[in-house]
């Protein structure tokens, strides 16, 4: 009898020990994934990476707006929202790799990760300035960030002997239209803000390689302007704002109904975005900047499919799309 008890106890201890070791290995791998050196990623074809897919509001499952366009070793970002460093690691893109950031507007949700990207990426180290392209006001914004971090930046440069250029922006402002080439990647931009008094200057960006093109827009652009700019695009990347959810919150007796209405007016409803993609003749539509984050993709795809017959995707952080 005692022998059987001892054998059972030994078996139980073995199981517990194996379980403990397995849990420790899982924990080690999770920790290591957050600190291990990342090699430069290479992309065989034009690739869209939805780095961060959240909105202006905090959400640990969806970091702030940041969209990467990549080809070969060239990676550029459209906007740099909150948590962009962590979001890039989640996408397995090292901080030193993005060579440029294109800002759709100077809304805080697009810019709060810029100093993180610049200065944390500098430690990698980044050896050349980070190119920053945005609407009027971008230069002043970048100067303000540089001034805010001047003392700490100078201390890091001195103590760690970091390359000075790697901790600075190279800024270009887009007054009306913009075009440049980065390797094989052609980049164009146009102003797309609504024609109303006090409208914040806003840009949409188009990335092309041969016949393939990806258009990325920001918050609440003018539908007609965006539609013209996105004509013939393979993929349109745009905000996923579910105004129906706002209406439901108001009907349920929200204490902040007026503010919700004002905020909804700043955005395009997901059905409006679907109609834009349809008029532009886009082949695919990717919703990002999701508010509220859907419990099921069908919350977005079903109403959108009433207006757009192409492929519809609901973005997740760190996912690749190849047009």
General description of the model:
This protein is an alpha/beta fold. It folds into two domains: 1-36; 40-321, Metallo-beta-lactamase, Chain A (4-Layer Sandwich), CATH 3.60.15. 37% of the residues lie in helices and 26% in strands. The protein is built from eleven helices and 14 strands. The protein has helices spanning 2-33, 84-90, 108-111, 114-122, 138-148, 150-160, 223-229, 243-251, 257-265, 270-280, 298-305, and strands spanning 43-52, 66-72, 74-78, 98-102, 130-134, 169-173, 177-182, 185-191, 203-209, 212-216, 235-241, 284-291, 311-314, 319-321. The protein has a seven-stranded mixed β-sheet with strand order 6-5-4-3-2-1-14, covered by helices on one side. It has a seven-stranded mixed β-sheet with strand order 7-8-9-10-11-12-13, covered by helices on one side. The model is unreliable at 25-32 (pLDDT under 50).
Topology (elements, then pairings):
Blueprint: H1 2-33, E1 43-52, E2 66-72, E3 74-78, H2 84-90, E4 98-102, H3 108-111, H4 114-122, E5 130-134, H5 138-148, H6 150-160, E6 169-173, E7 177-182, E8 185-191, E9 203-209, E10 212-216, H7 223-229, E11 235-241, H8 243-251, H9 257-265, H10 270-280, E12 284-291, H11 298-305, E13 311-314, E14 319-321
Parallel strand pairs: 3-4, 4-5, 5-6, 10-11, 11-12, 12-13
Antiparallel strand pairs: 1-2, 1-14, 2-3, 7-8, 8-9, 9-10
Helix pairs in contact: 7-10, 8-9, 10-11
Write down the overall geometry.
globular
What proportion of the residues form beta strands (DSSP E)? 25-35%
Strand order of the largest sheet: 6-5-4-3-2-1-14
Overall helicity: 25-40%
Overall tally of domains: 2
Largest sheet: 7 strands, mixed
Number of helices in the DSSP assignment: 11
Low-confidence stretches are 25-32
Number of strands: 14
Mean pLDDT: 91
CATH homology superfamily name of the largest domain: Ribonuclease Z/Hydroxyacylglutathione hydrolase-like
**CATH topology-level fold name of the largest domain:** Metallo-beta-lactamase, Chain A
For the record, the CATH class of the largest domain is Alpha Beta
Radius of gyration: 23 Å
Supply the CATH architecture of the largest domain: 4-Layer Sandwich
- Structural class by helix and strand composition: alpha/beta
Order of helices and strands: HEEEHEHHEHHEEEEEHEHHHEHEE
Cα(first) to Cα(last) distance is 68 Å
């Amino acid at each position: 009898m005692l022998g059987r008890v001892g054998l059972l106890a030994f078996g139980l201890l073995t199981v517990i020990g194996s379980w403990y070791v397995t849990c420790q290995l899982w924990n080690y791998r999770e920790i290591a994934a957050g600190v291990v050196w990342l090699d430069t990623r290479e992309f065989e074809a034009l690739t869209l990476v939805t780095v961060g897919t959240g909105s202006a509001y905090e959400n640990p499952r969806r970091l702030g707006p940041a969209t990467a366009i990549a080809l070969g070793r060239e990676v550029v970002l459209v906007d740099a929202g909150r948590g962009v460093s962590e979001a890039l690691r989640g996408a397995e893109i090292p901080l030193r790799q993005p060579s440029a950031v294109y800002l759709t507007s100077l809304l805080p949700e697009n810019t709060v990760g810029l100093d993180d990207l610049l200065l944390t990426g500098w430690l990698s180290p980044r050896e050349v300035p980070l190119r920053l392209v945005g609407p009027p006001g971008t230069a002043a914004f970048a100067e303000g960030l540089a001034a805010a971090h001047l003392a700490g930046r100078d201390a890091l440069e001195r103590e760690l002997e970091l390359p000075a250029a790697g901790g600075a922006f190279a800024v270009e402002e887009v007054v009306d239209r913009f075009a440049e080439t980065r390797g094989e990647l052609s980049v164009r931009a146009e102003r797309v803000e609504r024609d109303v008094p006090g409208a914040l200057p806003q840009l949409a960006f188009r990335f092309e390689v041969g016949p393939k093109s990806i258009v990325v827009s920001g918050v609440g652009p003018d539908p007609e302007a965006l539609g013209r700019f996105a004509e013939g695009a393979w993929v349109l990347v745009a905000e996923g704002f579910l105004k129906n959810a706002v209406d439901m919150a108001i009907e349920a007796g929200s204490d902040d109904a007026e503010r919700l209405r004002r905020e909804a007016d700043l955005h395009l409803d997901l059905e409006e975005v679907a109609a834009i993609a349809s008029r532009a003749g886009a082949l695919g539509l990717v919703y990002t900047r999701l508010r509220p984050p859907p419990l099921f993709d069908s919350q977005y795809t079903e109403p959108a499919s009433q207006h757009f017959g192409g492929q519809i995707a609901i973005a997740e952080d760190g996912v690749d799309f190849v047009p």
